[in-house]
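User: Hey, quick favor. My workstation is busy. Could you predict this chain's structure for me?
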Amino acid sequence: MLPRLEVVARRRPVDLVSPGSLLVEHPLAADWSEPTPHPAPYAAAVASLERPRSGRLVLELLGPGARLSGWYDVASGAVGLEVELGGRTTSHRSRRHGRVAGPAMSFALTLTGTHLAVLTHDGSAWTARGRVDLRDRIDTRDEAWLAALRTSQRWEGTDPPPAGRVVAGGFGQLGLRDVRLVSGRDGAAYRLDGRLVLTATSAGPGFFDTAHTSVWTLDPATHDLEHRADLFFRRPDRTGVFGDHATHLVRDDGRWLVATSTWGDFDRSRPGATVAITRATTEADLLSGRHVLDTRPLVVPTGSLRSVGVWDPHLVHSGERWLVGFVSARKFFRFHPALAEGPDLDRLALRGAAEDRTSTEGTTILRVAGEWRVLASDGRDGRRGQRRGFPVFDLEMRQVGALDAAYPTNIPWPTLVELGDRDWLMVAFDGTAYGGPLPGYGTHGDVVLLRSTPSQDRAPDRPTM
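Assistant: No problem, here it is.
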């Protein structure tokens, strides 16, 4: 059905402050404070330091009734956090990770969802040194609070501040996962000046509730990625702005249709924990800037599937009806791909489900040789014979084949585009972690590019940082 796909490149864009969201650029100084309003609780401040000897650097996010601080003591190498809310101050320092062995070249404070973190950079990579969850102390998703945020920097000590600078803006990413092509309603890849456009989950220093949706372009010739935009979401059933992700962006009749999964505040231990799919429509330019979108439910029928949650939406109009691929979970985490169809997105019926799968997601609808097919990704925890591969289904969700493709780690989605006659490109991701041991699972991954006609005269590109 499709030719063999081999790895030809890897990319790893890491930016604590996303390039298009810069709000402040300031020389390192004794003391300053600047307004930095944010549309969502995804913010970062990064300080570079040139040959510091002693002193203490403090970065802060200041909001109504809140002072959120990260500090780095140059002489001792100690790193920590301080949270002042409602007149109560608490200090937080990791016994295992809260000290650097040598002088840090950069120091950062980040807010991702409800999590405040500090990180240091040694010249090669960022390492998380401390993190605290604020969910029970302040509503960081409140839009009025976010609009009033300020970023400040202090230098404490007898020595003057070293040379350096501070930049502040929206949080970028430690890694990318859930990579999906932006498409037209007919499923064809959407292009911008010859580049492919992608959505991805931008990983924070943790898992679900530190991530958000981002938009990228990919040059199919050089495999270079460019960050374009960040998307955040209001829910119909609660207040605040969320970093929901695992998103599909569709160009539909001059507007954008956005389907996403409500992972932004997922907590498996919460009673009644679930994940749902929402949708938004807008005529705004979602290919640049930072956007908050109003959503409403995209109800996918699960029939007798006994589903506790649904995610990974993928939408295509066949010319006759909408096809909606998704994942349904019997429990967290045993899940399988499914397909719904209907004359519009408010009248969907279940077409089929691969209920024999237990660790399969990334449901993707693709037209191949004039036939609609549903692709998915079998994780390593599936049943025997259903691990580490890309099954291909018909519209009844009966398996009719599998991709002949190298399988990276984690559960990479099968995102494919035909660039020419039997010249296919697959944009996937893997489970490579970043940021040291403190964040745990969730910072993955490298973007992995596979192609049916790899260059014969060079080895695959290595990840870029």
